[in-house]
Write a structure and sequence with these properties.
2 domains, single chain, mainly alpha
């Protein structure tokens, strides 16, 4: 729906034919090996083995970005692994926010 919304915000009709892949890996391989246009996140483009076959088009994507949340239970102590994971996610999202 984000892609359809982006087309509509630009005053364009979305393509009549489309395919949805439940995996960014599958989508990027379809784009890399076929005649497809895909909408992939920045993270996928940086860590994807097929990235050398992909070309980033200079297109503004006018759809709102999805938000992410970390939810913890009140009064519960996080395990060291969970805290390390949360710290890593925060650090990673800060770095990617600077790229946007």
């Amino acid at each position: 729906m984000l892609v359809v919304d982006a087309f509509q915000r630009c005053g364009l009709k979305p393509p009549r034919r489309s395919a949805t892949a439940g995996s960014a890996q599958v989508e990027s391989n379809l784009v890399a090996k076929g005649h497809f246009l895909g909408v992939l996140g920045t993270v996928n483009l940086h860590f994807n083995p097929a990235r050398d076959s992909l070309k980033i088009l200079p297109v503004e994507f006018p759809a709102p970005l999805a938000s992410l949340s970390v939810v913890t239970l009140k009064g519960r102590t996080l395990s060291p692994a969970a805290q390390l994971f949360i710290d890593c996610i925060r650090d990673t999202t800060k770095r990617f926010a600077k790229l946007a």
